[in-house]
């Protein structure tokens, strides 16, 4: 079934280079260091939803590649983001994934006290410091934006525009889903760690060519209609419509029978699971019953943390709750299948027999992602790996070329 999309997508070229990144880029710690500085810290990262911070003093933490953030709701009701780093000795001012402060933030190391807006209320034993001016020691802010309820951070300036401009093609869809009204699904965060490079996770998730064979649940639900679409600026959209047949498996059959679209969805969102991708490693997934986001956080060249959060609608009926439970069953199986594919794919990067990628038109999203990485880190385009100690220098030389 052909569905008109309300935004402009980039067509797959008639002829294109079907190779991917060379295998050595999945194994190099020097490449990961470049990805840290040129990709992850300079591009938008989603950390949660405003509903994760319902009360004054509520906070979320977010760590990535040596940087630490805390997002907190202040006494004035505003949400702000700071480096999770005391201005005294650099200790974490909050510890854990999520929590709440009563009126102030107290560093657990030496007891410096910060207001919820990040200003320093006072240091312990201020008389022990020479010429101490607390106005010079507020928590350091981090660039933050909220898009239809979702909270984004960027640790350093980078090539992406504001979130509002970047995700403008999807603004009407997020509004139709009423994403700003979503609420956290209890302890909504999930975490999994895999012994793989983060790009192997994204390589699996960036294409639907594998759905018919690798994901029997999704194939049963929407595999006949699923399609990926690339847009300009490093965003993408995928959609799979369901309901044209009753479903063979227990979860799919009962999910289709129970699922109901919220009112006001446009035709391209009706009876569908939709996915919105944001470079480098974030996906928002919507079903009629709720939403989630998930992303990859690299820990080393060979280890990656998969994490995300789940959301639902506040006034949930019993039928919606049952449909959401079934959707999560289907998604849980899909995630386990993808994790195994990721491990197998990543293992091949160490094999002498691996000759590189040869991609289908149905995998053009993978190529588009690799192209963005090569644009930012041109050394990744080299077929043969330079010496590890020379990678940063070679990359700098390639960036300087006209």
3D structure, described in words:
α4 packs across α8 and α6 runs parallel beside α7. β14 and β15 form a beta hairpin. By secondary structure, the protein is of the alpha+beta class. It is built from ten helices and 17 strands. The radius of gyration is 23 Å and the shape is globular. The strands form four sheets. It has a seven-stranded antiparallel β-sheet. Strands 4-3-2-5 form a four-stranded antiparallel β-sheet, with no helix packed on it. A three-stranded antiparallel β-sheet has the order 1-10-9, with no helix packed on it. It has two domains: 274 residues, Naphthalene 1,2-dioxygenase Alpha Subunit, Chain A, domain 1 (Alpha-Beta Complex); 114 residues, Rieske [2Fe-2S] iron-sulphur domain (Rieske Iron-sulfur Protein), CATH 2.102.10.
Instruction: Write down the CATH topology of the largest domain.
Output: Naphthalene 1,2-dioxygenase Alpha Subunit, Chain A, domain 1
Question: Structural class, from secondary structure content?
Answer: alpha+beta
Question: Topology as H/E string?
Answer: HEEEEEEEEEEHHEHHHEEHEEEEHHH
Number of helices: 10
Global geometry = globular
Q: Spatial order of the strands in the main sheet?
A: 11-17-16-15-14-13-12
CATH class of the largest domain: Alpha Beta
Strand content: 25-35%
Radius of gyration: 23 Å
Biggest sheet architecture: 7 strands, antiparallel
Stretches where pLDDT is under 50 for at least 5 consecutive residues are none
């Amino acid at each position: 079934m052909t569905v008109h999309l309300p935004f402009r997508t980039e067509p797959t070229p008639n002829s294109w280079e079907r190779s991917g990144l060379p295998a050595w880029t999945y194994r190099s710690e020097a490449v990961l260091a470049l990805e840290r500085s040129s990709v992850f810290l300079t591009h938008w990262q989603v950390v949660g939803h405003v509903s994760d911070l319902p009360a004054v003093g509520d906070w979320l933490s977010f760590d990535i590649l040596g940087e630490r953030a805390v997002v907190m709701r202040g006494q004035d009701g505003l949400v702000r983001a700071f480096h999770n780093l005391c201005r005294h000795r650099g200790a974490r001012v909050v510890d854990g994934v999520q929590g709440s402060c009563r009126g102030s933030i107290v560093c657990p190391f030496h007891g410096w006290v910060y207001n919820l807006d990040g200003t320093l209320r006072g240091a312990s034993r201020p008389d022990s410091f020479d010429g101490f001016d607390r106005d010079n020691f507020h928590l350091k802010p981090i660039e933050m934006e909220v898009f239809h309820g979702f909270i984004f951070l960027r640790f350093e300036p980078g090539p992406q525009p504001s979130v509002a401009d970047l995700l403008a093609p999807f603004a009407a869809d997020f509004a139709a889903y009423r994403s700003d009204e979503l609420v956290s699904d209890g302890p909504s965060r999930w975490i999994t760690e895999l012994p793989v490079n983060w790009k192997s996770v994204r390589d699996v998730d960036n294409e639907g060519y594998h759905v018919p064979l690798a994901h029997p649940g999704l194939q049963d639900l929407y595999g006949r209609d699923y399609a990926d679409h690339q847009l300009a600026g490093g965003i993408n959209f995928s959609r799979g419509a369901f309901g044209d047949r009753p479903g063979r498996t227990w979860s799919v059959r009962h999910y289709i029978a129970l699922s109901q679209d919220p009112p006001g969805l446009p035709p391209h969102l009706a009876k569908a699971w939709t996915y919105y991708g944001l470079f480098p490693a974030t996906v928002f997934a919507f079903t009629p019953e709720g939403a989630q986001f998930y992303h990859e956080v690299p820990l080393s060249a060979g280890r990656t943390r998969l994490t995300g959060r789940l959301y639902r609608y506040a006034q949930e009926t019993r039928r919606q709750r049952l449909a959401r439970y079934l959707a999560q069953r289907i998604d849980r199986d899909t995630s386990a299948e993808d994790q195994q594919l990721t491990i197998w794919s990543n293992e091949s990067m160490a094999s002498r027999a691996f000759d590189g990628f040869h991609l289908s038109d149905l995998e053009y999203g993978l190529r588009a992602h690799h192209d963005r990485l090569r644009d930012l880190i041109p050394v990744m385009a080299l077929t043969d790996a330079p010496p590890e100690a020379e990678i940063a220098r070679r990359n700098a030389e390639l960036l300087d070329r006209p």
